[in-house]
Structure formats: structure tokens, C-alpha cells
Amino acid sequence: ASTNRCPVKGCDSRGHVNPSISQHCTLTACPAYRDRTGQPCEPDLSRVPLENRQSLQLFREAQNALASDTEQDMLAHWRMLPSEYQVEQVAIGNALLDVWYKSCLPADLACVPVLHYCEFCLACFTQRLSLTRHSRKCACRHPPGVEVYREGQVSLFEVDGRHFRAYCQSLCRLAKFFIRHKTLVEGVEAFVFYVLTEADQTGCRLIGYFSKEKRSLLNYNLSCLLVFPNHMRKGFGFLLIDLSYRISQLEGSVGSPERPLSDAGLAAYRKYWTRALLTRLLEHQGTDISVRDLSQETGIHANDIVSTLQSLELLKYWRGEHFILADKNRLRQKLSACLSTYMRLADPACLSWRPADYLTGGTA
């Protein structure tokens, strides 16, 4: 850019390219009022009557103000995430939960410290008053979809991500607050969600959920599992795991959770696998039982069975073959140690699941 001083009296511009017009001389003689090619930004208006030049100056000032406002709006949009990300808590019903991780939220929702969720339809609001108004009109009292399990006050609802896309997307965004590697938000159509609730006088209150890919090439029977912090340490995580395996057995398949598993997820599954396998081995009356038999009877994948038995030191390799050391007394000792951890399992008589259309070849 040129560094020559403007010849016009009273202008101290040194001719930098594209300065703010309102701060420099507006005559074409000023080197500052030129574009990047050195040409004047507008024709020579020195012969234009004075009153018209005053109108032109007012127009320039209005254009500068508009450009400044537009620039500030753009900066606010781009800086909203993550520098102005303010969400620290989420309110679900009567529970106020501290978030653990950042979720992928629209800019208008990410700029408040507390988000308020309707626990029945999962509509999200930035103000408590808005949620109160919504609650007066909301007719939902349980998750959408079909109830497939009911034991006392606890129910499980099957929610198709294609039929109830908005609900499932909101559920995924909510889960992202508590799961580090949660990535599914948009492609919910390919998944089915099993939402666990507990009923009271108001309705079915949200406990947690697990999602499952409709057609998994690797036979995964669970993609993501979450129990909300206010319902943790009550056995609901084991209940969801048990239900995922029982549904797989009704499908006639052997399942396994999607990898990689988190440390907490692997620990929970290892406890579940240990109890299920030890219980089945103690119930077995014969002398011979294979890993394949255990897999068919429990719905647990053979690889998970082998890794669990190895961790329990019950699987030995001798003369080219693997043998399960099923000494009854040893099995009881290991099972009693496993039973010290509270574990809630499903009642098969309360499960009324049937294959959905996407599994039987119908229209989803």
C-alpha cells in the first residue's frame, strides 16, 4: 500500500489500503481512498454540487455502520462455540445435574448456564418459565414408541429413530453431556432407542437408555448406554444390559456391545458376564459343556465368554484343547464374590418384545 500523505488539507492519512472511509478523507485525491489495485473506489465527484456530496457522505456513514453491525454479528456467531459456551447444568424434571462434557448444541442454546428439559418429550428451553408454559400444554407422559417391558413401576419403551427423529436427536444431545465419546446426533434413523423410565403420579420419568443399530454387520446388540447421574448405583445399568441380551435372544442372534468400550463400560459388562456364566455353569447338570453351548444359552458372544473365563482363571489349555474348570465349590466362591455387587436383572415374564418391521423386512 502507498504511504504517501494525503494532499488534502486536514487529512493525515498515509494511504493504507481499504481503511475505514469514515476516518479518512473521502476525496479521490487521498491515497487512502483507493482499492487494492490503486484505482479510486468511486469516480471523481469534485464537480458534484455541494448538497449532493453531503447526501453521499451520509450514505457512506450509513453503509459503514451497517457493515460494522454485520461484522459483529458474524463474529458473535463464530465465537459462540466454544469460547462463549456456558452450559454447566441441565434440569430434567426435579433433578438439576452438573454436566460432565460439552454437547453439540445450537448457538441459541449454548449461551446459558442452565438448560431445562421436559422429561417426557425432551423439548429444551433456556428459561424455567418457558418450560413451565410448555408443561401446561404438553400431552406427553411417557417416551414415544412401544412399551416392551414393564416390571412394577419400571418400563422400557422402544423408540424408532426414523419415526421419532426429533426426540432421539434431543436424547443424543442430552446424553452427550455425560458421555465423552458420544458422536451420534444426526444419523438417528439407523438406530432404535430403548428408553428406561420409572412411573409416578405425574408420568414416566426418564432413567436412562441404550441404543442399538437396526442392521449391524458385526451383530452388535448395543451401541450406547447411559444411566443419568441421579439414577446411578441403583442397578439400572445392569438391567439395560440384561434387556439388550434378552432382546437379542428373542431375535435368535448372539450379540456383543459395540467397541471400543470405556473403562467403566468394560467393568460393568465383565461383572454381568461373570454372573451370567457362573450361574449357567452351576445350573449345568452334565459333565461336558462347550463355549458354543454357553453362547447359545446366554446370548453372549463366544469371544466375550473366553475373555471372561480367562480373567476368572477358569479356562485352561491342555493338549491342544481348551477346558473349562467347572468345580462347583470354586464356582460358588467366585459367584458369591460377584453377588456382593448390587445387580438388577430383568424378569423374562415382563418382556413383551416382538421383532419390528425393520427386522422382518416390512416398511420402516
From TrEMBL:
PROSITE patterns: MYST_HAT, ZF_CCHHC. Transmembrane segments: none annotated. Its main location: nucleus. It catalyses: L-lysyl-[protein] + acetyl-CoA = N(6)-acetyl-L-lysyl-[protein] + CoA + H(+). The active site is at residue 258. It holds the Pfam family zf-MYST. Residues 82-355 form the MYST-type HAT domain. Keywords: Acetylation, Chromatin regulator, Metal-binding, Nucleus, Transcription, Transcription regulation, Transferase, Zinc, Zinc-finger. Gene3D superfamilies: 3.40.630.30, 4.10.320.30, N-acetyl transferase-like, Winged helix-like DNA-binding domain superfamily/Winged helix DNA-binding domain. Belongs to the MYST (SAS/MOZ) family. It comes from Macrostomum lignano. It comes from the Eukaryota. One of its GO terms (cellular component) is histone H3-K14 acetyltransferase complex. Its EC number is 2.3.1.48. Coiled coil: none annotated. One of its GO terms (molecular function) is histone H4 acetyltransferase activity. This is Histone acetyltransferase. It is found in: Nucleus. GO terms for biological process: regulation of transcription by RNA polymerase II. InterPro entries: Acyl_CoA_acyltransferase, HAT_MYST-type, MYST_HAT, WH-like_DNA-bd_sf, Zf-MYST, Znf_C2H2C, Znf_C2H2C_sf.
